[in-house]
């Protein structure tokens, strides 16, 4: 048996930030979940639909693992990523890190994990592995999934080997905090403006504020998009509010990140962004509730209302990101920044 000792198995709201928190706290760097999410420039928007999908998907963050790469780059962390098509080599990669005393991040398909009660394929799920024995692997997942949990070695192998949208080839990773780590607070402005730039100038119309506006038009057709509206629409609403998003399609997390930043940096642009994302978080929860009502009632009027709110949200978030993008021209007002 190989178990990493002294793990702070704190399950947070989102899977990737939960795993990052475990890996970094093990080395003495303890950042709040909103700070991890924000420094990783994690906020985004995606309207995803295709012919081989049963129902459209609304995503509120950057693609899986991009947050980890962004955070490592922002803080100068050493990120070692291992991928392989060999299950045997994949397990050896994990065992070697554990033997060296380091917990390991894994990207896998949550469908196969024993402790998951909601059996939906999602190949972008991330957990922290801190030990194993002859039968089980010991993981840290979100608080919603139980925090410190276990799953059979066989189920873990299936989860890591799964293929499909957003999956990776047995991806495992470790992070090393440098001795000369810069204060995370000095990276706030660059993380925010980088996120704002991507959101304001997306390469395709399905992303960023343009994606939200597109969703506002297309959500009105969702009752015609499915043969099972009482299943698919409430499921879409659930994914927005409960599936590791922290509520409001990650807008609650970003609002809290901006609030934490506002206590460190005196900026009218930051306060404007915070005010607008506080408004946006409320509206996203209302959108989810309307989508659920449309599914349970079969009434298109709720989708019309959701579409109107989404068009409002496209404007609110565009204005918020425009304000936040102006932070790069603002001189730091605090010695710590």
Automatic annotation (TrEMBL):
Residues 14-142 form the Butirosin biosynthesis protein H N-terminal domain. It comes from the Bacteria. It holds the Pfam family BtrH_N. Residues 155-324 form the DUF4872 domain. This is BtrH N-terminal domain-containing protein. It comes from Streptomyces thermoalcalitolerans. The lineage of its organism: Bacteria, Bacillati, Actinomycetota, Actinomycetes, Kitasatosporales.
